[in-house]
Description:
Number of helices of chain B: 7
Oligomer: heterodimer
Number of helices of chain A: 4
Distance between the termini of chain B: 44 Å
Strand content of chain B: under 5%
Number of strands of chain A: 22
Number of strands of chain B: 1
Radius of gyration of chain A: 24 Å
Structural class of chain B: mainly alpha
Mean pLDDT of chain B: 68
Amino acid sequence: MSRRIVAIAFSAVAALAVLVVGLAGARGAGADEGGEGLALLHRAGSQAAKLGFDGTVVVRWRDGSGWHRQSVPVHMDDGVLRMGDDRLVSAGARRLLRTDAGWQLMWAGRPKGSEPDPARKYRFVVSGPTTVADRPAVEVDVRRDGASHAAERLVFDRDTGVLLRRDQLDEQGRLTRTFAFVQMTAPVPAHPAKPGDVPSPTAQTRGAAPHALGGVPDDLTAPKEVGHGFELAGVYSQPDGSAQLYYSDGLFGLSVFERAGDLVWGSLPAGGRTEQLGDIRVRAYRTGAGTALVWGSDDVTYTCVTDAPMSEVRAVAEDLSPSSSDPLEDVGHFVTAPFSWG
Amino acid sequence: MSAERIDPPEELLSAYLDGEATPDERARVEAQLATSEEWRDVLEELRSTRALLLASPVREAPTGFWDSLLHPDIAPPLPTEPVRSIESAPSRRRSRAIAWIAGAAAAAAIAVVVLVPGQSRVKPAVATLVSRHAVRSSVTEDPVSQLAPVSKPVQLGR
């Protein structure tokens, strides 16, 4: 009798264990919070520099006139990345642009600020194996908590961890921008003891790199957090006199360039579209690198650049200019824009 | 040793604006624009002037103007101002006075605009700022995907 009770109890415990394992397995097949997908994202930024390869990437983006395409040759050798027919060079934290006047230093030095954990806002779901540029790869869907569509699809090289493809989608789940390797030679390990040649900036162009600021200039504003969880990760002074506030939500970066003074609407380049974001009238541009919005408010000119979806950008713009709309000011801009030489 | 400074040639910048520059000239201008605020200012000035000219109303010449210019011997005479009577002389003086007052007012307005210090005016170089953002992002995010879109001159679309 007692033996039968023990057998029944054992069976019940075993069945419960199977049920628990089964449920956990079912959950593990989809959601990957803090797991493999996130680890791949963290790892991707530094992986390419550890390898040597040649490749071609294609950037495609959509704007009001349709799809655009840009093909870029990529050469990575001993930690030095050369792109666009040797026009842009990346080595460690240095970025250099080739101009007729010589190599221009665009960035130097590791940023000191930290960036938020993307898992705070996004879920990473490993959606399965795939192939990009003939390389076996792993696809990860990234979506905001509660969202019905992915904000991004990331595809990482299965063997090296290099980011091979990045698809960005809008709120309706439609593709808006994509970056992808279309061809890549078999990667070989870099020689860490023998760093590649890095061009030297000329004296004339050395001053083009921004420098970090300890604080924000008095006539500008820099909230610690804007939009949906974008945290201030650095403030920089740009050579043109503007302050660059760099925000991140862990997945997307967002720069707000602020400069004291009235925006000269007539000086803005062609190609943009005027849009109304809540109370704010902005000029919006779509580019291969993301969206750029320009507006003026309270004697400050803002240019916001980001690869984040428009819903995120809208919230940021409204946070920075809560009541910018002044009908008289708008009429003034309309009347004076053609005469804006100043 | 100071680097050589290149003055912005307006003729080349005009050709660039009109889309008439050769690929080499375009590359040269874009390289200078990327590094020189002076070049950007001159380009903006040319762009504004051009926009203003394009926005100016076009007026038809009066009937017979071109004939009188090209064939003065056979063209009918152009309409002229009617002969004024002695009585109309005061009104002519009055309109001249109004013209002087209007001129003085315009000069005063220009002086106010030029001499009174006002809020500075900002002309953001949008394409440059897009590149600057991508460069900053590339330092803490994946460098290849961040830099690829700005490794060629940035195209600004709607």
